[in-house]
Amino acid sequence: MAEVRVDKYLWAMRIYKTRSIAADACKNGRITMNGVQLKPSRTFKIGDRFSVRKGPITYSYRVLQLSENRLGAKLVPDYMQDITAPDQLELLELARMAGQTGRDRGTGRPTKKDRREIETFMSDSYLDEIDWDDEE
Fold first, then answer.
1. Are 83 and 47 in contact (CB under 8 A)?
2. Where on the phi/psi map is residue 48: left (φ > 0), alpha (ψ -120 to 50), or beta?
3. Partners of 36 in the β-ladder
4. Which helix (H) or strand (E) holds 126?
5. Of 39, 75, 47, which Cα lies nearest the Cα of 63?
6. N or C: which end of the chain has fewer CB within 10 A?
7. Residue 111 gets which letter from DSSP?
8. β-bridge mates for residue 80, sequence order
9. What is the reported pLDDT for 1?
10. 56: Cα within 13 Å, side-chain hemisphere
11. Quick check: helix, strand or coil at residue 16?
12. 16-25, 32-41, 48-57, 109-118: least confidently modelled range
């Protein structure tokens, strides 16, 4: 096996739960290689580097081996190397800390309104709506 479809590989490496979700991520421009958005039918070869944008964080990976079959979580590091930049991991840690301080302990589950506000805040479109040039 010399090549594997992008959507199959993302599903097999457990980046996405289903292959159709992986294909939708490709179609929405969340999967890139060398700055170029990938289509689900594009193929990966050993040694390729690609990026996956999930929320505010962009994860980067290197293909070590190919597989069309879904792997156990313990086998994934043998097939794919995580080369995510430290500044992206710092963003992830900041998001975790912000999520922990958002609700007081003992206040119960979020209401439907709270959940919608959290989802809006964590979505990709929320970050796109912010005009970063106005802030100084």
1. no
2. beta
3. 33
4. helix 124-129
5. 47
6. C
7. P
8. 63
9. 72
10. 18
11. coil
12. 109-118
Which ranges constitute the DSSP H helices of 3-109? 6-12, 19-27, 76-79, 86-101
CATH of range 4-84; options 3.10.290.10, 3.90.1300.10, 3.40.50.1100, 3.40.50.10840: 3.10.290.10
Percentage of the chain modeled with pLDDT above 90: 55
Helix (H, G, I), strand (E, B) or coil at 43: strand
**3 to each of 47, 70, 109, 124, 127, how far by Cα in Å?**
11, 16, 46, 30, 34
115 vs 122, more confident? 115
- How far is 29 from 6, CA to CA, in rounded Å? 13
Give the per-residue pLDDT at 133: 60
For the residues 29-42, what does the mean pLDDT come to? 93
Give me the chain's average pLDDT, please.
85
Q: Which residue has the tokens 């939708």?
A: 24
Domain with CATH 3.10.290.10 in the chain: 4-84
End-to-end CA distance of the chain: 52
- pLDDT digits 0-9 by tens, 69-79: 999 999 999 99
Q: Do 101 and 45 contact (CB within 8 A), yes or no?
A: no
